[in-house]
């Protein structure tokens, strides 16, 4: 069943339903073979021609949630990142922490003087011999990709900043690099230009082995918006106070006090946060 049915993507494009693709996404969320097969079987029995990918995602999410909150949270990671908006600051914080995990000192939201003009830089990541000037392109809806205009613009900004940096003899041993991180995808010409210009390009699923999704899972840096045990209002209040990652809740459980949560609800939130983050990351980093 479902082999010949067409489903509609967020872009409006119709594509064939793929059982293997859905199984893969469920497995990546941590579902066992048995659980993934049962969920896909149920979805195929419900599926109709023209159903949106969003409705399929919602049904799979709810079925996972019935089994285990942390499975549903991992499955909903892409949506959870989009829920970090509407401002881009929480996403910048997430990106900064991912880079910090790789041994860099980080600064977020800096004004940097270039050779010609000053620039607001989302993240500056520094090691003794290397510095990354990082632009974060955050989109809070599906179907939006970063086009070639993004690396064209960022490349010119990076060049202006680096030109001034190199006027200082103390910076002669430091190599400077531009980086763009987006939570969706780059168009093919954006990637081509980025490669040609020497920019480091990171999107939801690019590059293979070091994409945004893979880094979040590798370092356990899940956003609090992934927590199924919190409602949207509770998540937004935490974001408003600069609490972006589950790891912050793991290391400081008291952050959940005075949030209108009962003791049993706090216990549930902490258990889910630990399953997502604390068991795969250093809470003291």
Tell me what you see in this structure.
There is one protein chain. With 285 residues, the protein is an alpha/beta fold. Among the domains are: 62 residues, no CATH class; 130 residues, Trna Endonuclease, Chain: A, domain 1 (3-Layer(aba) Sandwich), CATH 3.40.1350.10. Helices cover 46% and strands 17% of the residues. It contains twelve helices and nine strands. The strands form three sheets. It has a five-stranded mixed sheet with strand order 3-4-5-7-9, with helices on both faces. The protein has a two-stranded antiparallel sheet with strand order 1-2. A two-stranded parallel sheet has the order 6-8. A hairpin with a 5-residue loop joins strand 1 and strand 2. Helix 1 crosses helix 2 and helix 3 packs antiparallel against helix 4. The radius of gyration is 21 Å and the shape is globular. The termini are far apart. The C terminus is likely disordered.
Short synopsis of the structure:
The chain has 285 residues and is α/β, with parallel strands linked by helices. The chain is built from twelve helices and nine strands.
Question: How are the elements arranged and paired?
Answer:
Blueprint: E1 6-8, E2 14-16, H1 19-28, H2 33-46, H3 53-67, H4 69-75, H5 77-82, H6 89-100, E3 105-113, E4 118-127, E5 130-137, E6 145-146, H7 149-165, E7 175-182, E8 185-186, H8 188-197, E9 200-202, H9 212-219, H10 232-240, H11 246-251, H12 263-278
Parallel strand pairs: 5-7, 6-8, 7-9
Antiparallel strand pairs: 1-2, 3-4, 4-5
